[in-house]
Structures are given as structure tokens and as C-alpha cells.
Amino acid sequence: MMREWATVVAWRDGIATLHTEAKTSCNSCSARKGCGSHMLNKLGPKDAHVMEIVSATPLQPGQRVELGIKESSLLGSALLVYMTPLFGLFLLAGLFQALFHSDLAAACGALLGGIGGFIVAKGVSLKVGDRAAFQPIILNVALPPDALRVESEA
Fold first, then answer.
1. Where are the beta strands (DSSP E) in 38-141?
2. What span, in angstroms and rounded, lies between the C-alpha atoms of 149 and 152?
3. Global model pTM greater than 0.70
């Protein structure tokens, strides 16, 4: 199971709004000056992910929760998103090449197949995305921010 910690933004009527930050591996690497990934991460957006998850337990803003999602559903999603357009690209490129005997036709078929693959992946993801196996679940709930008080005697 893949695990990630998130911060509660709001909780209302059994729905928790959670905030997770996008992580990169660049913080643990020492080759920052010569790395292209580090440069791309600096250029890219620094946004976080906001999601809504069903939670029967009342949560307070600022509270931390551990989310989990099955590796099999994550792998299935990645296969759908990456392989469907690639399959469509090769299929229509080969079909157009065989029908029209032209490289331009094969390129047009590849473009149409790739776009069609993305559309098919989007449609399939809308149908199966609501299944429980593809939804993250709350594994652990940390103490609320105001539940622990440390007092020092001076």
C-alpha cells in the first residue's frame, strides 16, 4: 500500500478536505547543479494537491492524516494513462501506413491514434475512477494540533 501524509483543511458532513504537497526527490540528491530534473522542478508549479475524502471521524483543520492507496490500482491507472495512447498511436499509424502507403498518412494516423487513445483513457477513467479500489483511504489520524500542550516551568 502506498502511503502519504496529508493535512486537514476542513471537515464538514463526513467529507474531509485534505491538502498534500507534491514531493520531488531533488531534496535528497547532491547533484543539483548538473541535473536537468532539478532545473525542471524549479521551473514547474509548486502547487499542492487538494482532495476530498469520506471520513466518519470528525477532523479538525491542521490535523494530519495518513492516506493509503493500493499499489495495484495505482499501477492500473498508470497503465491506462500511458499505454492506451501509445497503443492507439501504433495501431492507427500502422493501419494508415498499410492503407495509404505514405509516411505522411502514417504520421497523421499516429497523431489521431494518440489523441484517440487519450480520449479513450479519459472515458475509461471516468467510468472506473469512482470504484472503491481507486479511492484513497484514511489509515491513521494524528492528534489534533491543540490536543497536546507542552508547558515549561521557568
1. 48-54, 64-69, 137-141
2. 10
3. no
